Amino acid sequence: MPLVVRQSATSEAEKWAAEDGSLVVWTLALVEVVSALRRLVRDGAVSERAAREAEALGVDLVKRAHTVTDVERTKALARRLLRLHALRAADALQLAAALAWADGHPEGLVLHTFDRRLAETAEREGFHVIPAP
Questions:
Q1: Considering the entire predicted model, what is its pTM?
Q2: Which of 18, 58, 108, 116 has the most crowded Cβ, counting Cβ within 10 A?
């Protein structure tokens, strides 16, 4: 979200994106972005126009990213993660997609997240997490 809507973490997220030329996203990431944007509109935090512009930015980001599309493998990994860790379903799917992309070997690979629970779990699974949990 900080890459499509100005937030306190936007500068840091933009720095990460600039430093790491390869963005990897889960195939349903844009659905999550639209969900978050609609919530912000309903809460009055962003205007309808700002939400449409942010969604367009999200579409552009996803077009430039490597998208993990192996849904069956991601679902299986997410189910395992949910049995082992205290994650929400969407976070489990995000992490499962990262594990699928890493072909089950996340050691030395970076996962960026501002979500503390997701960061702690990703670190336990072997990713180098920035910022550290």
A1: 0.85
A2: 58
What distance separates the 2 farthest-apart alpha carbons in the chain?
42
**Residues 87-106 pLDDT 10s:** 999 999 999 999 999 999 99
Phi and psi angles of residue 103, each rounded to the nearest 5 degrees, phi first: 55, 35
DSSP 127: P
Convert the pLDDT of each residue in 32-47 to its tens digit: 999 999 999 999 999 9
Q: Which amino acid is at 73?
A: R
What does the DSSP assignment read for 27-77? TTHHHHHHHHHHHHHHTTSS-HHHHHHHHHHHHHHHHHSEEE--HHHHHHH
